[in-house]
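We emphasize that the prediction below concerns an isolated chain of 137 residues; any contacts that depend on oligomerization or on bound cofactors are therefore not represented. The input was used exactly as deposited, without trimming of termini.
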Amino acid sequence: MKKYIVALHEMDGMIEDIAKDFTHGVVILRGDLAAGKTTFVKKMAKFLGVDEEVTSPTFSLQHCYKERVFHYDMYNHGREHFISLGMLEELERDGLHFVEWGDDELVKILSSAGIDIMTIDIEKISDDKREYTTCIY
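Result of the prediction step, given as a token string:
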């Protein structure tokens, strides 16, 4: 487990560190509304060479960037709906998969399927600072 406390404009070092430690699998992002889950994905996607605009897939469930960067949001429909749509098979594709609003049950399911997982819990410290707690399973 690693913890980072950084301002939004100082995220680059943390992003590089995380990208070095976790190159493929599922990154589950957890935190309150406006904690910075999508902001994290935007910064990571840019670091990974994505030139397109990265937006939250809240209403579309999934966005794909390049051939190896995938972004999901389970906020509106939850884990059961996500699974019923066959999205677990998507998470087995080679690349980095960022899942906003994943929960501990999803971690268990993915772990039992042998999928590499990192969780990132984001806590808003102030308008400009966040605490990121990462854990690799």
